[in-house]
Amino acid sequence: MKVCIPLRAAALALAATTVHAAPAAPPVDVFIGTAGDGHTFPGAARPFGMVQLSPDTQVRHFRQSYPWASGYRHDDQSILGFSHTHFSGSGHSDLGDVLLMPYSGETKLEPGYPERPFSGYRSRFTHADEKAEPGYYAVRLQDHRIDVELTASERVGLHRYRYAAGEPAKVLLDLRQSIYDYASKNLWARLRMRDAQTVTGMRETRGWAPGRQLYFAVRFSQPIAARQLLNREEGVEYKGFAPPGKTPADKVLVEGKALVGTFEFAPPPGNALLVKVALSPVSEDNAIANLDEMPGWDFDAERGRARDAWNTALSVVDIDAPEPMRKMVYTGLYHALLAPTLFMDRDGSYRRPDNAVHKADGFRFHSTFSLWDTYRALHPLLTLLAPEQRNADFVRSLIASRRHSPYGILPVWQFHGLETWCMIGYHAVPVIADAYMKGIPFDADEALAAMTASAEYGPYGGLEHYMKLGYVPIDLEPEAASKTVEYAFDDWTIARVAEKMGKRDVAARYFKRAQNWRNVFDPKTGFVRARKSTGEFRTPFNPVQSNFGSDYTEGSAWQYSWYMPHDNAGLIHMLGGDAGLVAKIDQVFDAKVDEAVYAHMEDISGLIGHYAHGNEPSHHVAYLYNYAGAPWKTQARLAQIVASQYSDKPDGLSGNDDLGQMSAWLVFTALGFYPVAPGSNEYVIGRPFVERATLNLPNGKRFTIRAENLSPANGYIGKVTLNGQPLARSFLRHDEIVAGGELVFMMQAAPNKDWGKDRSARPYTQTPYR
């Protein structure tokens, strides 16, 4: 594994004690995305694991949480502590549960301030004393003179703290902290002594997902010598003190909204104290049972198991490319394998919005579905590369969530089993549809019922008006233009599933609904626009206007007017033919745009003209030239995007990674193709950015991509062969990839304007080409 940033000598010496043989590993740099707007975290996790154990650097009680959505920013110079749950690249902040901070010297119960060293328990650090790789993180806490190492299994985080020789070991547990923009989000919390080495607890929060409950068990590698369990609520008497040996262990507890625990230990053997923290969605007892997932106290062995798990997960692709690109693509794949996250106990138990405990039967329940972002490329990437059972688990988790939903619909944006109602659309539908169309096994009848229930739930997002009028009216529902076009795409994916299942009446109904995007497209201006319930477009109209709750969702007409990925030939017809689409997309990229125009919208970032790669509505736009017979222009735009929107530095993502979507876009694009319309079973060919890549597919087959003569000067496709035969069309079929074989790109300096030009060579579209 590549060492991203060197750690101080003492910590390196500690790491060198490992006896676990390390297999070769791809060059992942977990710090990519931790600066700028990437919002990723550098800490330890397993692929799709329930625990994300990572440092938090955010300022307590800050009012602008957006930059610290993952808890960590590379620009910061002090660490608040190490908590066990984090989003990877979200545009919204939450989590940061069960924060531990090892310390020395005086006990301080408040975190203090970054600009005032020693004002609290936080500590300064430097990147020179920091090291991280998949499944492992280490840092030196300068103010406490403590070396910290972290690793994780699926449900358990493992800490190793090395203190100065002969010093007592001290640890603070703070349940007040959270990665959220409220000063305090705790509804209730509990800390309970279980025995001389074990503490359990819970907290219920009112953050992004109201009423979220999380339970935990903390076990130390040696007995506690002294402890305090405190409720720091203003005006509440401190409770929870109990001298060891004087009170039964299970009676030592404290409850309230502002709980802190401090624990002191005799100088540990070898100066190293280890701490395990297990999480549970169900109960403290289940959290204790989950500790058995990590028997013993061999930190180096657990680190090795985490490394091996990541090496296995990342080995689905073998990549040859110049080192910066190779690192960027493997890091993108790493980020794509962090979510959705496991959210059930070892016995299969999980908690649902009805506050009842359920058991998964024949699948592993997952949550953290950022569906508005991830249906586009992340889930198609996982469907292609992840094991079949894993993808089946994702779909079955979505269907189980609908089964327990009080509204009878699929999740919209779900984490820890709860709905946030964030973003728009019913985008669990294309995730399920794409999986079904590609042969992932699950109950198709129940899935279709869940999909149609979501599409016909009138109270949600103006659907009652959409079903009646054929569009969402802006005078009755905000973000109406965006909702109409996104609903239309989701409807098309339902039609595709129904058609394959032989349910012709359902297919016909939803194919018709899939054309509703036309009801908000204005041929006179060439833009998607919001309409009133009386039928007219809303005026005045400014295609650059974007605001929360306006006509569009996190975008303007310049980003949303090309969103009918299932029917791009229909868009071409609306714009007067191939030349009309090419000219319009050229305008998107070539416009001279003052970035101040979008400065009020945090998510509209990564601008190239009006193209905003930092947010998802733009992600398919560069590939649209293929539908107009000009794939050479797609090739040129992709080079422009990759060069300006990604790098192998901490600020190497131009926008929120959004649970892996930005990363999945890069992985697909680097391989040379992209799923513009999930559910079509086609991938639109762009151009490769790696010299060679072999997909080691779940079915045991291999699909190899080679780019001959690839160089910065040779950025255009001259010709393409598939299994030795010329490929004239500008798309691949899913079945062609999973069958194994070889795709070869012959790259050259000048564009081949004839390749992919014919209508028969163009990708799928619901409306036939004319």
From TrEMBL:
Domain Glycosyl hydrolase family 92 N-terminal: residue ranges: 28-280
One cellular component term from this protein's GO annotations in UniProt: cytosol
Pfam hit, one: Glyco_hydro_92
Keyword Hydrolase attributed: yes
UniProt signal peptide: 1-21
Domain Glycosyl hydrolase family intervals: 286-748
Biological processes, Gene Ontology terms: carbohydrate metabolic process; glycoprotein catabolic process
Segments crossing the lipid bilayer: none
Protein keywords: Hydrolase, Signal
GO MF annotation terms: carbohydrate binding; peptide-N4-(N-acetyl-beta-glucosaminyl)asparagine amidase activity
Protein name: Glycoside hydrolase family 92 protein
Organism (species): Pseudoduganella flava
